[in-house]
TrEMBL record:
Organism: Rossellomorea pakistanensis
Family: Belongs to the arginase family. Agmatinase subfamily.
A GO MF label: agmatinase activity
Protein name: Agmatinase
The entry's keywords: Hydrolase, Metal-binding
Lineage: Bacteria, Bacillati, Bacillota, Bacilli, Bacillales
Repeat listed as a keyword: no
């Protein structure tokens, strides 16, 4: 993969022109090959970039401007349409290369399965890695109708890979009974329905540890994010999600990478979801990159 040339398409606002001089690499994972309900999240990264032009560069929450963070928008990883196995192999190789270059990866999905190869690659570099997962769904299935490569499985995969006790899920309001039982029996943390208050309790226990944060946009209530593949009523507000991002920023955890997934523009007629995602990424960059 070549990073020495700027992405030729739309880039996220204030993207730094040089890969070499950047601390963070922003990239897209345009894949929705395994979704169980509505496809379209493969178009999410491109639309998030496009609407970012409407953002202010300054965050009044954090009193920082985007120009203070050197991040390079590398564009989308070219993934083979309809081939999930090859796609996740390419994603893992891509992250291996970023980490070898000392970069901090910030990804945009794409369905949630794309987070699995990223987290797997992160665990090779960071042996004490912890995962913070915000989502409407547990994503703890072994398979979906016999298929182990599914957007309903990435958290189960990483939990089994780094031990369930190193995975912390928040905002969960949907999943099979067996998934909740498996988490409880294996020492995995799940906070149902809420994010901010349980997150405040957990963050002190992760202080000093390398943490990867994966956010599924459907952790938000559909009133705040209708443009996603698997909507689920009863979610948190965009205000609470922003506050949660800022709480992580104020904590002592070391965010070594992150992603935001499952934005599906085809269902986002007012562009509300893409605009929200764009602002969330701004706050993640400004809050988590020191």
């Amino acid at each position: 993969m070549r990073f020495d040339e700027a992405y030729s398409g739309n880039v996220f606002i204030c993207s730094h022109p040089s890969y070499e001089d950047s601390q963070v690499v922003l990239y897209g994972m345009p894949m929705d090959w395994t979704v169980s309900y509505r496809p379209g999240s493969r178009f999410g990264p491109a639309r998030i970039r496009e609407v970012s032009i409407g953002l202010e560069e300054y965050s009044p929450y954090l009193d920082r401007e985007l120009e203070e963070v050197k991040y390079f928008d590398a564009g989308d990883i070219p993934l083979p349409f309809g081939n999930p196995q090859k796609s996740i192999e390419l994603i893992e190789d891509y992250i291996d290369e970023l980490l070898a270059d000392g970069k901090v990866p910030f990804g945009m999905g794409g369905e949630h399965l794309v987070s699995w190869p990223v987290m797997k690659a992160m665990s090779k570099k960071y042996k004490d890695l912890a995962i913070i997962h915000m989502d409407a769904h547990t994503d703890l299935r072994v398979d979906y109708e016999g298929e182990p490569l599914s957007h309903s499985t990435p958290i189960r995969k990483i939990a089994e890979h780094i031990r369930p006790s190193n995975v912390y899920s928040f905002g969960i309001r949907s999943g099979m009974k067996e998934e909740f039982q498996w988490a409880k029996e294996n020492g995995m943390h799940i906070s149902k329905f809420e994010v901010l208050e349980p997150l405040k309790e957990i963050l002190p226990t992760l202080e000093g540890r390398p943490v990867y944060v994966t956010i599924d946009i459907d952790v938000l209530d559909p009133a705040h994010a209708p443009g996603t593949g698997t909507v689920d009523a009863g979610g948190i507000t965009s205000r609470e999600l922003l506050a949660s991002i800022h709480e992580i920023a104020r904590s002592g955890v070391n965010v070594v990478g992150a992603d935001l997934v499952e934005v599906a523009p085809i269902y986002d007629h007012s562009e509300q979801t893409a605009n929200t995602a764009s602002k969330l990424i701004r706050e993640m960059l400004l809050g988590w990159v020191k």
